[in-house]
Specification:
Mean pLDDT: 96
Low-confidence stretches: none
Largest sheet: 8 strands, mixed
Order of helices and strands: EHEEHHEHEHEEHEEEEEHEEEEHEEEHH
CATH class of the largest domain: Alpha Beta
Strand content: 15-25%
Number of strands: 19
Radius of gyration: 21 Å
Strand order of the largest sheet: 5-6-4-14-15-16-13-17
Bound molecules: flavin-adenine dinucleotide
Number of domains: 2
Number of helices: 10
Distance between the termini: 45 Å
Length: about 400
């Protein structure tokens, strides 16, 4: 006996975060059931309930820009498709440079983004000051801005996809930990969980920061590394800021929510891995307070309401891992989204579903396939704009 409705599924998705849910939703829409999504925790326990809600199309590579652009379109129509409003607010993303070297880097990003037909702009210091009320004098030399980037509330997005997937017949089992992947005749045959074992020919590893552990439990060496990142929310203030602001030099990012709170983070170093759980640290609060108050001095008087942390699932080249593992037929990766899985999930989930169904995708295997990490390194491209 298991806690699941069936003993066998066509696909088992491990992880009920935004990536796993979008994947299950697209599988169900394609009529490829039965699909089981298993999560050891509650909905939004992983990164999908702990992020800054940023959705941007300013990236260094065309491959990421195109996925992000498709996701922007998906979040714009999300309310109509899913019946939940994620409050996607396109106030733009403003990248700040406080040195000429960083501005040169942003100019190069702008050139790629603009050549993709997006209306990115390079700003001088005055142009930046017009977008950030109260900016400290001489804090920046310039920046770039794309008005169609934006911010959303992650929770209604997760709930919307969850409800829609369930309406289409996807079974979502929360509180069941997948401990292992059963292999028979060299391919996936099922999973073992704390709620019992199920048979399946296909497992999707959408386990976020724990994806490396799941792959390794299936006998697969992968380079994914979980890194802990902290974030906070302040008391509400009168609206003063439209864009998400990101500083290149230290990764400081913040946006103002529609309730007036500032939501933002800054990377302080933590040992890799998930062992420490998700606490917040005084070091982060101090670094964040200094950075914010230095950039917008009047924010030094604002109180922090709450701070928390979550895991990025990082890959060596900054691209996610999407596709079947060549070493284990039936084991499909949907992971390695770093600090940007929420903004890529609508586009990625669609493609993961196609991989599960054995259909071709437009993803360059040199950039996205799990096989790119096997054998001699081939791709020279990397997605390095891992900020905000
Ligand atoms: C502080 C912070 C800020 C961020 N800001 C942004 C941002 O502004 N924009 C953006 O796009 N992204 C952002 N991200 C990244 C984004 O949150 C993630 O990339 C995204 O949510 C990953 O979604 P996921 O579905 O892959 O993983 P998750 O949401 O982490 O879901 C994985 C799920 O798998 C489950 N699981 C893991 N292992 C097992 C197992 N063995 N058995 C059963 N269940 C298992 C977990 O319980 C979890 O619920 C941020 C992340 C953090 C931490």
């Amino acid at each position: 006996m298991t806690a699941f409705a069936r003993s066998e599924y066509r696909t088992v998705v491990v992880g009920a975060g935004i990536v796993g849910l979008f994947t299950a939703y697209h599988l169900a829409r394609a009529g490829a059931g039965p699909v089981l999504v298993v999560d050891r925790g509650y909905l939004s326990q992983g990164g999908s309930g702990r992020n800054g809600g940023g959705v941007r199309q300013q990236w260094e590579t065309r491959a990421t820009i195109r996925l992000a652009r498709e996701s922007v379109a998906a979040y714009r129509s999300f309310g109509r498709e899913f019946g939940y409003n994620p409050w996607f607010r396109q106030g733009g993303y403003l990248f700040l440079a406080d040195s000429e070297a960083d501005l040169a880097r942003l100019r190069a990003v702008h050139d790629v983004v603009a050549s993709e037909g997006l209306a990115s702009r390079v700003l001088d210091a005055d142009g930046v000051a017009r977008l950030v009320d109260g900016l400290a004098p001489h804090a920046v030399v310039g920046g770039t801005f794309l008005a169609s980037d934006g911010v959303l509330y992650p929770f209604p997005a997760v709930w919307g996809v969850y409800e829609a997937a369930r309406r289409l017949g996807v079974e979502v089992a929360l509180g069941a930990d997948v401990g292992g992947v059963t292999v028979r005749d060299g391919r996936v045959a099922g999973v073992t969980t704390t709620a019992g074992a199920v048979a399946t020919p296909t497992v999707v590893n959408a386990a976020g920061g724990w994806s490396g552990a799941l792959s390794r439990a299936a006998g697969l060496a992968v380079p994914n590394v979980a890194t802990r990142h902290e974030i906070l929310v302040t008391e509400p203030m009168k609206p003063f800021l439209d864009p998400m602001v990101v500083r290149v030099s230290d990764g400081l990012y913040f946006s103002q929510s529609m309730r007036g709170e500032l939501v933002g983070g800054l990377t302080v170093p933590h040992p890799p891995g998930t062992a420490a759980g998700t606490p917040s640290s005084t070091a982060f609060l101090v670094a964040m307070a200094r950075a914010l108050a230095g950039l917008v001095p009047r924010l030094s008087a604002v109180s922090v309401l709450r701070a928390w942390s979550g895991f990025f699932d990082d890959t060596p080249d900054g691209f996610p891992v999407v596709g079947e593992d060549p070493r284990l037929p039936g084991f499909v990766h949907a992971n390695g989204f770093g600090g940007h899985g929420f903004m890529l999930a609508p586009a990625a989930g669609r493609r993961v579903a196609r991989c599960v169904l054995g259909e071709a995708t437009d993803l360059d295997p040199l950039l996205f396939s799990p096989g790119r990490f096997l054998g001699p390194a081939r791709a020279t491209t990397a997605e390095r704009l891992q900020l905000g």
